[in-house]
Amino acid sequence: MQGANFKKAITFFLVFVLLGAMFVFLLLQARWDSGTTDEVAHIPAGYSYVKKLDYRLNPEHPPLAKVLSGIPLLFQNLKGPFGDWSWGAANQWEAGWNFLYEQGNDADQMLFWSRLPIALLTVVLGLVLFFWVKSLYGRKVALLILFLYSFAPTVLAHGHLVTTDIAATLGFTIAVWGWVNFLEKKNWQNLVLAGVLFGVAQTLKFSCFLLIPILFLIFLVKVCLERKKHRAWPNFLFLFGRYLVMLLIGFVVVWLIYLPFTWNMPPAIEHQVIEQNLKPDDARTLPIRNFLHVFENSKLTRPVGHYLLGLFCVFGRTAGGNDTFILGYFSNHGVKWYFPVAWLLKIPLPVTILFLFGFYFLLRYKLRKENYWRLTYIFIPLLAYWAVTLKGSLNIGIRHLLPTFPFVYLFIADTIYPIINGDKRFFSQEALVLSRVLVGFLFVWYVLSSWLSFPYYLAYFNEITFGKEKHDFLVDSNLDWGQDCKRLAKFIQERNIKKIKIDYFGGTVPSYYIPEEKIISWHSDQGPATGWFAISATYFQFSKMYGIKEGKWGYNWLEAFEPEKIIGGSILVFNISTEDLKKHPPRPLGEIRITPQQAEAERQGLVKSWQVH
Question: Which end of the chain is more exposed for a tag (fewer CB within 10 A), N or C?
Answer without folding.
Answer: N
